[in-house]
């Protein structure tokens, strides 16, 4: 009896193993389901592809602003030229340029013109002066006429009008303090100075 019950248990165990093996075979034999008829489009690869990124263009460099003011070396050259251009002198109560005044203004004005045209923000000031005779008001007007006459001449030789300012000091800034004709002649003049600040 013991033997036959062992055989039954063994038979059941073998049958269970065979059944389990067959079930596994059936599952393994099944392939993936066939693709649906409407899914004819090729499947995209799941492997990551390198993204082609359009590089952002670097911002264009700002255009270099050309300086409209001379450097220190050029300013020194202008100062040298202005020092060589002598003051232009006038007759008593006159504002017309005498031949010697024209000669004084003419000296180095061509080189000065050639430098200034490259630096349109750099300005010169033509100062008009008078001797001590006459009222302050009258001399202010006369000094302005003298400065304007000199400016007109400089514009004729090619210095841009926009780079030439004028001012009258009348009799307020004398070059000489004596009270005689020789001194008064030195005071009736125009003088050109550099104005380093843009107007």
Note the run of SSEs as H and E. HHEHHEHEHE
Radius of gyration: 51 Å
Query: Would you identify the CATH H-level superfamily of the domain at 90-195?
Result: OmpA-like domain
Provide the helix percentage: 40-55%
Please report the number of helical segments.
Answer: 6
Low-confidence stretches: 23-29
The mean pLDDT is: 79
Provide a quick synopsis of the model.
This protein is of the alpha+beta class and 199 residues long. Helices cover 43% and strands 12% of the residues. The chain has helices spanning 2-29, 72-84, 99-106, 109-116, 136-156, 181-187; strands at 88-89, 123-129, 164-170, 189-195.
Topology readout:
Blueprint: H1 2-29, H2 72-84, E1 88-89, H3 99-106, H4 109-116, E2 123-129, H5 136-156, E3 164-170, H6 181-187, E4 189-195
Parallel strand pairs: 2-3
Antiparallel strand pairs: 1-4, 2-4
Helix pairs in contact: 2-4
Describe this structure in words.
The chain has 199 residues and is an alpha+beta fold. It has a domain at 90-195: 60s Ribosomal Protein L30, Chain: A (2-Layer Sandwich). Helix content is 43%, strand content 12%. It contains 6 helices and 4 strands. It has helices at 2-29, 72-84, 99-106, 109-116, 136-156, 181-187, and strands spanning 88-89, 123-129, 164-170, 189-195. The chain has a 4-stranded mixed beta sheet. The longest helix has 28 residues, at 2-29. It is rod-shaped. Mean pLDDT is 79; it is low at 23-29.
């Amino acid at each position: 009896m013991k033997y036959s019950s062992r055989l039954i248990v063994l038979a059941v165990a073998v049958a269970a193993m065979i059944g389990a093996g067959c079930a596994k075979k059936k599952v393994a034999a099944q392939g993936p389901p066939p693709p649906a008829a409407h899914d004819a489009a090729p499947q995209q690869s799941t492997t990551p592809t390198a993204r082609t990124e359009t590089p952002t263009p670097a911002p264009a460099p700002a255009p270099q602003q050309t300086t409209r003011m001379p450097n220190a070396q050029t300013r020194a050259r202008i100062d040298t030229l202005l020092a060589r251009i002598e003051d232009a002198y006038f007759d008593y109560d006159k504002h017309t340029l005498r031949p010697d005044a024209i000669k004084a203004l003419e000296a180095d004005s061509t080189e000065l013109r050639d430098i200034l045209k490259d630096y349109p923000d750099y300005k010169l000031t033509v100062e008009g002066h008078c001797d001590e005779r006459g009222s302050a008001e009258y001399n202010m007007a006369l000094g302005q006429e003298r400065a304007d006459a000199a400016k007109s001449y400089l514009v004729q030789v090619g210095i841009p009008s926009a780079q030439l300012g004028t001012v009258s000091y009348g009799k307020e800034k004398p070059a000489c303090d004596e009270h005689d004709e020789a001194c008064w002649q030195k005071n009736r003049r125009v003088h050109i100075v550099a104005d380093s600040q843009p107007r």
